[in-house]
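**Reference record**
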Amino acid sequence: MTTLLLSLLVGVCATWIALVIPARRRSWVDSRIAPHVSLRSGLPGKERASRSGSIPSVSRLTERLLVVLRLERPFRLELARAGSGWTTAQLAWATAGAGGGVFVLALVAGSPAAAVLLGLLAAVVPHVVLRLRAGRRAKAFDEQLPDILDMLVGSLTVGHSFDQSLHAVADGAAEPAATEFKRALGEIRLGRPARAALSDVAARVRSRDLPFVLTAVDLQQQIGGSLGGLLKTVADSVRERQQFRRKVRALTSMGRASAGALVAMPFVAAIGLSLLQPTYMQPMWQTTTGRELVVGALVSMALGTFILKRIVSIGS
């Protein structure tokens, strides 16, 4: 049991090293777009070039392998949604390092089947961390959206164009909206249509409310009218939707707390018994029947967690 806990600790440490330490290297595309979107690197040009060229062969080989495996685009989208500065190659090495390290330690400790299971779980940890970061980022963006729409309405009211209003939003908004709108403005300045650039923002952030804004802009372009007044109505609708979601979340708080307690209870009991009475839990880890029971319990808990989440959640 001690070795298994050590293996999990190694996986967590590898994930922390891979995801918490910020990346310094900038890609060629970022360096070309940076002057247009007001993104500046903290490194001088020569130092940045030396850093980016330190291990080019390994990084390029990994990126080419990801392209062959058709994993480059999903990894890149996953990193963009989380707002991470890491490259796809660094994410691939973080995944392989966490999974491989835990697999080797667990394999030395005991069963190959348990080593494979723990290795797969450790390999998934970096992606789970990125998904959690992406969820927090999307929630922060949606909370900022009503104020962003108010800024757009104010800018349009004084006579600015839609592109100028987007520039004002990019300069005045907080993170993560500022970064996303700066990126969209950079794409627009390079010749991309504003509708396509903003659609990518909605897909990248996974905003639940931004598609309503894009639909309003499309309708205004087709039938005419005051875009400022239309966006004002959309801002009020977005605020009402967010208030309704908060109300539903408050009403379902008891159900979500019960679900969390039911999921955590078996793990707390297993860890407590393993520390207080190691001989009592040894059959669960050292016999085939015990391992099969553990796997069956984990599968049942995953299914129950999914069902409970669907019961207490509200669709967008």
